[in-house]
Amino acid sequence: MALTGKQKAAMLLMSLDPISACELLKGVEPDTVQDLAVELACLDADSCRNKKEQLKVAQDFCQSLQMQQEFEINTFLKEMLRSTIGQSKTENIQTQIQSILRKHDSIATKDRAVQAKSELALRKVAVILRTLGKELRDSLLGAIKDKDASAAEAVNNLMVLWADITLIDDRPLQEGLENIDAEKLALALTNADQAINEKIRNNISESAAAMIDEEILLMTAPKNEEIKDARNEVVAVLIKMNNKGKLTFIGE
After folding, report:
1. Structural domains of the chain sorted by starting position, each given as residue range(s) with its CATH number in brackets
2. Residue 176 near residue 237, CB atoms below 8 Å
3. How far apart are CA 216 and CA 198, in angstroms?
4. Phi and psi for 79 in degrees, rounded to 5?
C-alpha cells in the first residue's frame, strides 16, 4: 500500500535527529505537528516500516540525509514536540497519542484475529478439496476463482503445507523429492520435526541422504528466513504435483 504524504513526512522525521526534525517543523501548525506525531507513533507501533523503507523515503526528500543505526521513538517524540510547541502542549498531545494508539492496537488485534480465522476456514476448504478427484477439484476451484481469485489461490496453496509432508503417500513424495537438490533439503530439514525428518529421509536414496548429511556438516548456522525459504521451495514442488493430480495423501 502506498504511503500517504503524512506517513512519508513522519518517516522522514524518523531519519533525522530531534534537533534537525525540530528545525524542519518550525512554523508548522500545532495540529499538523500532532498529526505527524501520531503517524510516527503508529508507524512504530505497527513495526511495519523497516530501515530500508525509511531510507528510501528519506532519500526521496533529500539525498544528503543519513539513517541512524538506532532510533528511540518515545525520546524522539518527546524532544521533537517539546522543542516545537512547548512542554504543556507536549504533555496534552502525548496523552492523546496514547489514547489513539490504544484504539489502533485494539483494531489491529481484531484484524489479525479475523485474518487468522479466515485462513483457518480456507485451510479447511483446501483439505476437503484435496481429497477429491482432480477434475471435480479443479471445477470447484474454478467456481471459487470466479467469485474471488485471491481466495482460490489461497485455497490452492493451502492444500499442501510443510506439516503435511508426513501425510503424503511415499511414492509421490519420492518423485517430488527427486527434483530438490541436497543443499536445499539440508536447509529445509534444519531444526525440522523428527517425524518430517524421518519421512523425507525414508523416501530418498542412501546416496541422497549422504549428500544431505555432507551439506549439513558444511553448513554454517542458517538464518530462520533461509530455512523458511527452503521449506517453501519443497512445498512449492509438492503443490505443483498436486495441481497435476500426482499427489496423494495417506487415508484420503
Report:
1. 5-85 (no CATH), 162-252 (1.10.220.30)
2. yes
3. 16
4. -70, -40
Task: Quickly tell me which residue has 480456507 as its cell.
Answer: 122
pTM score of the predicted model = 0.56
Alpha-carbon distance of 205 to 213, in angstroms, equals 12
Residue type, 51: K
Higher pLDDT residue, 11 or 51?
Answer: 11
Is the separation of the CB atoms in 237 and 247 below 8 Å? no
Which amino acid is present at 73? I
What CA–CA distance (Å, rounded) separates 49 from 111?
18
Distance CA 173, CA 16 (A): 53
pLDDT in tens, 154-177: 999 999 999 999 999 999 999 999
Q: How many CA atoms lie within 13 A of 24 on its CB side?
A: 18
Grid coordinates representing 215?
Answer: 551439506
Question: Length of the chain in residues, anyone?
Answer: 252
